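Consider a concrete sample entry:
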Amino acid sequence: MLPQLNDFLELGGGSGQPVTKALVTAGLQVFAIDASPTLLDRFRQAFPSVETRCENVLSSNFFDRQFAAGVAVGLVFLLQENQ
């Protein structure tokens, strides 16, 4: 599926504040992935309209779609050098 211009992927979204709030407020169609069930529960409470998946980013199929853009603010520090 080709991405719409407002389709946006948030990797390692955590509880979703403040990045997700800015993305949603800007009118983007946000999709979020996080491996932590606890953080994702908080995320879902704050942003019930955002489609989410609880899974590891390294093994994700990214909702089986393409995105116009993405962000990984809370994820980069978790990656190892050789990944």
User: Anything to note?
Assistant: Strands lie at 7-11, 29-34, 51-54, 69-71. The mean pLDDT is 88. The two ends are 27 Å apart (CA to CA). Residues 37-46 form the longest helix (10 residues).
